[in-house]
Amino acid sequence: MLPNVQRTDAADHVPVLAEEVRELLDVRPGETVVDGTFGAGGHSRILVEDLGGAGKLVAIDRDSTVRPYFDRVKASARGVQTRFLRGDFAVVLSQLAANDVRADAVLLDLGLSSMQVDRPERGFSYATDAPLDMRMDSSDEPSAAEVVASYDEPELAKVFRTYGEERYATQIARGIVRRRAEEPIERTGQLVDVVKASIPAPARFGEGHPAKRVFQALRIEVNHELESLEVGLPAAWAMLRPGGRLAVISFHSLEDRIVKHFLRERARGCTCPPELPVCVCGKEPEARVLTPKPIRPSAREVDDNPRASSARLRAAVRI
Ligand SMILES: C[S@@+](CC[C@H](N)C(=O)[O-])C[C@H]1O[C@@H](n2cnc3c(N)ncnc32)[C@H](O)[C@@H]1O
To answer: Which of 109, 118, 218, 300 has the smallest number of Cβ neighbours within 10 A?
Structure first.
């Protein structure tokens, strides 16, 4: 199946908090920009404009189907050197940093693109029956179906509780183990049925889709999303030149907490215990945080693009 770039533009990802990212990253001609989550290249396209025909764009994505979007950005980026690297940004950024590649601006826009969510065959959506896949990189293992088939009941419950903050994690895990003893759970529709059958009736009609949290949890587990962020943030930071800027957009509190702590730690100076009369650690702040509070999308942006509603943007400059 062709990626959505071959279909209508209506399915393309709309970049979130685009003007705010542009302002915080403040890209100038001749600089090197790293977009660690290229997607449809909406943010990259804007940042390339700010390069004013001179500089470099390094685009990273673990999903090979974004390649046609990159080719489009490349074709319009006259005078700017562009490179696409396919892989997990945790790995790619670490390799770039280890090879002394330096950047002036790094962007991580976490989570899924609209193309991934809206293509039923990717298995991310509880709204359509499709194979239970959920891999951003389809060559990775395991898929969501393999997780559901192989994790034991406590492991499944832990995933749903930790990554989905699912209240009925234990009941749903038990429901899955029972159902898979009868038949393999290989489709999103089967998983939705098990979730519905495992939770109390009133919860089936509560706020949002009853399987939303389970799907979020499985997706985070399948793609090791929080581990990638934990490794990717210090790697991105290591690449930044003095004066370089890092911006991160997250879409749920688990991600945002990691970003907040990471930036706070970099901005912190002396870590000596308060009872010491003088500093002995000598630690100097490495960062100036540009967003004391996370930036949220305006009501107007959410109206135009409801998928932006949970976005939170944080940024810092390397001192
Ligand atoms: C929210 S979309 C980015 C959209 C993009 N900023 C735009 O304007 O089109 C997230 C993209 O990042 C990719 N992605 C998520 N986590 C990743 C990771 N750890 N390494 C590499 N790519 C990742 C996904 O495959 C997806 O294409």
So the answer is: 300
Residue owning the nearest CA to atom 24 of ligand 1:
112
- Token pair, residue 113, equals 């693109």
Phi, psi of 88 (to 5 degrees): -70, 130
**209-261, pLDDT tens digit by residue?**
999 999 999 999 999 999 999 999 999 999 999 999 999 999 999 999 999 99
Cβ partners under 8 Å of residue 6, min gap 6? 68
**Structure pTM?**
0.94
Instruction: Place 93 in a pLDDT band, splitting at 50, 70 and 90.
Output: very high
Query: How many CB atoms are located within 10 Å of the residue 288 CB?
Result: 14
Query: What's the confidence (pLDDT) of residue 204?
Result: 84
Average predicted confidence (pLDDT) for the chain = 94
What local confidence, expressed as pLDDT, does residue 278 receive? 92
Q: Output the CA 40–ligand 1 centroid distance in Å.
A: 9
**Per-residue pLDDT, 205:** 81
* 291 to 245, 248, 267, 298: CA distances (angstroms): 12, 11, 12, 16
The SS3 assignment for 251 reads coil
Write out the E strands in the chain. Answer: 32-35, 55-61, 80-86, 103-109, 240-250, 287-289, 312-318
Ligand 1 atom nearest the C-alpha of 63 is 25
Pair 47, 25: CB distance under 8 Å: yes
Q: Which atom of ligand 1 is nearest to the CA of 90?
A: 19
In the structure, how many helices (H) and strands (E) does the chain have? Answer: 14, 7
| Atom in ligand 1 nearest the alpha carbon of residue 107 | 6
Confirm if 203 and 169 have CB atoms less than 8 A apart: no
Which residue has the least CA distance to atom 5 on ligand 1? 39
Residue 273: Cβ-neighbour burial (10 angstroms; 0-12, 13-18, 19+): exposed
- pLDDT band, residue 11 (cuts 50/70/90): low
